[in-house]
Amino acid sequence: PGVILVAINPYKPLSIYEEEVIYAYSGCEIGDMDPHIFALAEEAYKQMVRFGKNQSLIISGESGAGKTVSAKYAVRYFTTVGVCLCDSSMEEKVLASSLFMEAFGNARTTKNDNSSRFGKYTKIGFSQAHVTGATIKTYLLEKSCVTFQAKAERNYHIFYQLCASATLPELQGLGLRECPHEPYGTA
C-alpha cells in the first residue's frame, strides 16, 4: 500500500516547483504539508534511506496529463536532496534523452500536440543516500500509430522532420520526398 497523489497539468510553469520548495519538503513527513510530487519523492527517499529497500514512483495518466513533467520534478528532487555524486548536470543529462526520444516517439493526437508514444522507466542509482547515476529505458506503446492515425491526428514527428529535410545532402540516398499532406506543419 502506498500514497496516491492526483496532480493536474496546469500547462504553464508554476513557482511550486522551485528549489526552495524542494528544501521545504525535505525531511517532512507525508501529510505535514500540502500534497505534492515532492512529498511523494521525499517519502520514497526516506523509506529507501531508512530501510535500505528499493522504492518506486508510478506516474500514470492520460495523454497531456503531465506525466513526463512530474517525472522530471521527481528526478530534480532526488538529485537535489540526494546530493548527486556525479557531475552537477546529472539531472540535465538524465532528462536530455527525453528530448531526443520525443522526435522519434511523439505524435499529434486530438488531446495533445506532442503526445509521447513511449513508456519510460527511469532508474536512479543511489549509494549511501547519494545519487550515483541514472538510466532511462523506453518502450514503444503504440506501434499501430506507425501505420495509422485518426483523421485529426498526425504520425510520429520524426517522419515529417525527415521529409522536410529531404533535400539535405546527407539524406539524399534515403529516397525521402515531401509529405503530400501535412496539415500541421513540422514539429
TrEMBL record:
<keyword id="KW-0518">Myosin</keyword>
<keyword id="KW-0067">ATP-binding</keyword>
<dbReference type="InterPro" id="IPR036961">
    <property type="entry name" value="Kinesin_motor_dom_sf"/>
</dbReference>
<protein>
    <submittedName>
        <fullName>MYO5B protein</fullName>
    </submittedName>
</protein>
<keyword id="KW-0505">Motor protein</keyword>
<dbReference type="Pfam" id="PF00063">
    <property type="entry name" value="Myosin_head"/>
</dbReference>
<dbReference type="InterPro" id="IPR027417">
    <property type="entry name" value="P-loop_NTPase"/>
</dbReference>
<dbReference type="GO" id="GO:0016020">
    <property type="term" value="C:membrane"/>
</dbReference>
<feature type="binding site">
    <location>
        <begin position="61"/>
        <end position="68"/>
    </location>
    <ligand>
        <name>ATP</name>
    </ligand>
</feature>
<keyword id="KW-0009">Actin-binding</keyword>
<dbReference type="GO" id="GO:0005524">
    <property type="term" value="F:ATP binding"/>
</dbReference>
<dbReference type="GO" id="GO:0000146">
    <property type="term" value="F:microfilament motor activity"/>
</dbReference>
<comment type="similarity">
    <text>Belongs to the TRAFAC class myosin-kinesin ATPase superfamily. Myosin family.</text>
</comment>
<feature type="domain" description="Myosin motor">
    <location>
        <begin position="1"/>
        <end position="187"/>
    </location>
</feature>
<dbReference type="GO" id="GO:0005737">
    <property type="term" value="C:cytoplasm"/>
</dbReference>
<keyword id="KW-0547">Nucleotide-binding</keyword>
<dbReference type="GO" id="GO:0007015">
    <property type="term" value="P:actin filament organization"/>
</dbReference>
<dbReference type="GO" id="GO:0051015">
    <property type="term" value="F:actin filament binding"/>
</dbReference>
<dbReference type="GO" id="GO:0016459">
    <property type="term" value="C:myosin complex"/>
</dbReference>
<dbReference type="InterPro" id="IPR001609">
    <property type="entry name" value="Myosin_head_motor_dom-like"/>
</dbReference>
